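Blinded run. Sample ID left blank on purpose so nobody reads anything into the name before looking at the predicted structure. Input follows.
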Amino acid sequence: MYNIRDWCISRQLWWGHRIPAWHCQECHETVVARETPSICPRCGSAELVQDTDVLDTWFSSALLAVLHARLARKDLGSGHLLPHVAAHHRLRHPVFWVARMIMMGLEFMGEAPFHQVYIHALVRDARARRCQDQGQRHRPLVVTEKYGTDAIRMAMLQCAAPGTDIVLTEARMESSRAFCQ
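Blinded prediction complete.
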């Protein structure tokens, strides 16, 4: 987390957390506030319009660790859930999401939200489609019952190379089952 640089927190999206900034239609003052202001602090006008931009996805997601920590401190007292021991993320997320979660934790909570990051692959089907997008083609309980736990573990280990996703096929599970028997 060295040489961290600011990034643009706004995107032209139609969804997301709206930027908490209001523009006075009279004096063109920009008011940034936690609560919706009723009048412009500069000229007293009530003609305030909220900015239409939203915070970008990575920024919104980065707030998750801060939200969990604040809820835990409110409900359980200080220090119960922050820092977490580890975070689990897909291969693509660490650069964007995890770094921003750490930055938010350090900035707003004074500590990192976790100390370890476990980066894992996605399980894909024979056509390299994400299994979760296709109605869970490989349901864990179903394939475990059909092929056996050891065979599934072996099939996944055979194609689990660092930095790649796991392509889990029926043929691979069958051959792993044959090997395990």
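Unblinding after everyone has recorded impressions. The two ends are 48 Å apart (CA to CA).
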